Amino acid sequence: MGEAGARSPLQDAPRIDERADDRSPMLSGPSFGLLLDGDALVGPNGGRAEDVLLAAQWRVREGTLARIGYRILEGGADVDSVYNFALVHYATAGLQVDL
Fold first, then answer.
1. For residue 67, how many other CB atoms are within 10 A of its CB?
2. Considering the domain boundaries, does residue 8 fall inside one?
3. Domain span including residue 84
């Protein structure tokens, strides 16, 4: 159990979600496109997180997309009781099939 009057580590925070995607027209349109997808979260007490994906996508056939890209994930907290940040880079690959 926690101390009496201890703060909860879970708090409400504003979230930003952005997506630039020509995916929908690609399902039946051009065979190549780009996807930029990002999320960001900022906490009221010094925490933050960002997740951004940049990917190239190809229409393999009608209703099927293949995707390969780069993703960066960064975030952490800098408050009196905790200092913790992480930065992760990685490659991604995916296949989307619309039924």
1. 17
2. no
3. 15-97
Summarised one tens digit per residue, pLDDT across range 3-44 is: 545 555 555 555 666 666 655 445 445 688 888 888 888 887
The answer to whether 68 touches 93, Cβ cutoff 8 Å, is yes
Q: Report whether 53 contacts 69 (CB < 8 A).
A: yes
- Look at the alpha carbons of 32, 90, 16, 64 in this order and tell me if their dihedral is positive or negative: positive
Strands lying side by side in the sheet with 15-21: 15-21, 32-42, 47-61, 64-78, 83-97
User: Nearest Cα to 96, choosing from 41, 57, 54?
Assistant: 57
| 73 Cβ contact list (under 8 Å, min separation 6) | 49, 50, 51, 86, 87, 88, 90
